[in-house]
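PROTOCOL LOG
Step 1. Enter all chains and additional molecules of the complex.
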Amino acid sequence: MKFTLSWLKEHLDTDATLDQICERLTAIGLEVEDVDDKAAFKPFVIAKIVAAEKHPEADRLKVLSVDAGDGKLLQIVCGAPNARAGLIGALARPGTYVPGIDVTLSVGKIRGVESHGMMCSEKELDISDDHNGIIDLPDDAPVGTSFAAYAGIDDPVIEINLTPNRPDCTSIYGIARDLAAAGLGTLKKPGANAFKVEGELTTAVKIDLDDERLCPGFALRLVRGVKNGPSPAWMQKRLRAIGLRPISALVDITNYMTFDQGRPMHVFDANKVKGDLVVRRAVDGETILALDQREYKLGPSNVVIADDNGIESIGGIMGGEHSGCDENTTDVLIESALWDPINIARSGRSLGIITDARYRFERGVDPEYMMPGLERTTQLVIDLCGGTASKATLVGYKGFDAKVIDFPVSEVKRLTGMNVTGAESADILKGLGFAVEGEGDRLTVSVPSWRPDVEGKADLVEEVMRVHGVDHIKPEPLEALGTVHPRILTTLQVRTRTARRALASRGMLEAVTWSFISEEQAKLFGGGSPALKLANPIAADMSDMRPSLLPGLLSAAARNADKGFGDVAIFEVSGTYETDKPEGQRRVAGGIRRGTASLAGAGRMWSNTAKGGGKPVDVYDAKADALAVIEACGLPMSNVQIEAGAPDWYHPGRSGTIKMGPKVVLGYFGEFHPKTLATLDVSGAFAGFEIYLDAMPEPKKKATRTKPPLELSPFQAVKRDFAFVVDKTVEAGAVLRAAQGADRKLVTSVNVFDVFEGASLGEGKKSIAIEVTIQPSDRTLTDEDFEALTQKVVASVAKATGGTLRA
Amino acid sequence: MTELIDLQNRLLADIAEASDEAAIEAVRVAALGKKGSVSELLKTLGSMTPEERQTRGAAINALKTVVTDAITARKSELKDAAITARLKAETLDVTLPVRSSPAERGRIHPISQIVDEITAIFADLGFSIAEGPDIETDYYNFTALNFPEGHPAREMHDTFFFNPDEKGERKVLRTHTSPVQVRTMEAQEPPIRIVIPGKTYRQDSDATHSPMFHQVEGLVIDKKAHVGNLRWVLEEFCKAFFEVPSVTMRFRPSFFPFTEPSFEVDIQCDRSGGQVKFGEGNDWMEILGCGMVHPNVLRSGGLDPDEYQGFAWGMGLDRIAMLKYGMPDLRDFFNADVRWMNHYGFRPLDMPTLFGGLSA
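Step 2. Run joint prediction.
Step 3. Record the structure below.
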């Protein structure tokens, strides 16, 4: 919402400075977004051309002697066709910034003649597009004074960022009312109307709507015998200052009313209207050529004003070109109507029309000003265009019932902590136009028709508070809870943090990637269901809620590789989406490594066993990351099982599923299926994992924090190696479990230290070498004991896997 | 006796010539072994007369001592030389580079770090962390928060919608973290003190807007929390978060559907020199929105607005991260460019705490 200082002062009698006004506007919630104090125009002065000689070197240029009122004549070279001795215009001296040509002047030489400034055109001053010649002022223009002051373009322009709850301040009058209530002056009473009403309105109005809320009132008047020329200079200046283009008196009056009173008006050329006016829903397929010269297709959700010709206007949004007023208009129909804010918002949005009328109607136009607005507009028409006003008609209006709020003034203290007396609260509300009854703490407050936003006590508290001054509210400590706070994070929140730190500690970089991915990628990773598809995605490839963190991470790695960073290890701990329900949102820790970015580090290193390119990442890198997350989250690793295989997007022979018990899937890891990588259009060595943090069970509640006693055996632990020849398909995990199970007391750990395949072992065979740690607890073991245990281990492995001790 | 002197000279020469431990051992065996030259002489002692023993015997014993000592000394010398040689052979180039520690290479995203910073601050004030789903119902995202159907404020949100389900209801991607306010009120009795960090979405993309971004929101509900407390909480937070001794904040009346009264809050700052500094300067920067929880929102949460009251505030997490740590462009947050993550990310062991400081 834009306005000028002088326009504001038309309604507000105040001595306040521009700065004071702006400060107060912001303080009462009308945030000043921009102020143009027009300082840029200050250097331009009115000057007179004393003499104009032909330039000695150029036919089209003149050499002027210019008097800027200080008696010193300036020599200026000028090419304007109208430059002549005696002309009074606007002078810019060297050093002045000229906005229309974006140049700061300096003393120049034009074809050998020095020029000390410039006589400006309106275009050069950026006040119009007129560039036919330099500004030519009347003979009585005061030489030596400010041109901007003379031309009335020094009026500061203020722009406020209006919040959507304040329709009353879509008018300059409303802003003045707020400032007056805030003690910054007195609100001026609007002048009385004084026009004669003669004759009937010949056009009848009918509201033909199934829902009367769509048009709760429609007023119309005819003014005959008008002359629609340009509007007067004062009105044009104000409209131009706030960015509106003057068109004709009748159109400018409606725009003026829109900003001055927040009352959008419409004018029809009465002679172009055929038959009666009907307010109705548009019929599917009806069209209108609107005043913006564009054709709109309308439907039943659009409320229109139609006559026998068809649709003449989109109610409350934009008029039609057909019945618009022009210089030939002699009889004008003035409309002042009310429209349903919600329908206006919806219609405007669906049609893509943004107008000053829509802006006001969708926020709520003062219903009680519908008739006064018509009267005021009639007065302006008669003042500026002449003519005779007919009787007015008003249909559909049921009157206004003021909301009445029971307001204990103590609410102000309760909600804001601020002390304001009942009397002061009442005064503030009265200043804003509220009717206040009662005394002391209990007030009964009626809400004025221009404040649809005020609904209850809290709204009145805000009114009192913003006018009294928010600065009066002092910070007051929030009461301390008086204890050392217990843990505030949930287990899932703790695990989320821990997973992040654990993965970052493994040399991985945390990324945050989009929650939405392309449908193709979503489907590739098990998603893409219709319920998780956005109706209005920001881009075609950001259409589906991600079922997995992996596609985003894989694509990110590929982007980095394209920039020359091929060895990357990145992770994300965030949400994935299985359904559109809250419980369908998973909490996942996922990561990928590309190229040679292993835990030890990426790239070629002199100490690498595999020199040259470095060792590419594989399934075991991903497995280590996955298990690190689970371990960091505090799950008992003895309960965690690994099974071969993972969902389709993984490499079927190089991937695994991590489970806890038979049902709980903690996650997956592995290398990726070549088709997955091809579909994502990524290449290189990749390994990745996803761990479902939300699938991890809550830790068991412990009665005590005390750890179980540490039992240390006094007897030496012994390590024994075994190598088993097994079928190639036998999993090492099975051998480990069998060895471990041979004697759960004595065998404390088993580890694989070598896996070997070779012709010497036979077709389809491999050797798995394990190291078994044996920890006696009650006595030193004898050779016989060891022999017996060895037999048990061999037998157990043979039974479980068919493996034999390697010869 | 000259033969003894000759023998001693010969043996000492042999000892001196022995160049390794094997050679010196050979000399020792030749002299002092069972059949060694000196041993053979010692065997003659038994058959000597007492006089002979006194002269020649003593000389033989002296010879033995001299030779033994010389061998021991030479052996020790040779051992040292061998160690020196081994050490020399074992020398490595210690200027060769080693692998960096993974914990030094890894990075935490600024968003995660900031959430931890905020958690540390508000934990101290007795707040917990609440979370909610990204995919929300229209009810929690709008209606329960006092956004009337068709209200222009809904339009300001540029909402992402899902397709309507069979009942005609369409879910949304939450446009703010505020739905968690009502979800929390429904689930928990006052007093409530929560902070809600999380992802939010709006259908908007340009230099300063990203279709996905992060907000952090706070909510206090009890029977007496008022705007003065709100001011205090926000000032304390800003001081602690930006790690400055004082801040000046300006509360401007404003409008949000879910608070009444509502405020926008500016923080005084100095923007000279291309950096934003808080706690000094003459500029104002809008940093957050807040207000007293709207009675209708309390009602949505099942609370009586005449009994309970409270305040809420919200701000852009990415934005305050940018203000504190100087990232120039929001869009980079979601690009996963390793150079950006390395530069703006945080080391995994730099954990924000109040006792150790929020940032290094």
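Step 4. Note key features.
Residues 32 and 68 of chain B are 8 Å apart (CA to CA).
The mean pLDDT of chain B is 92.
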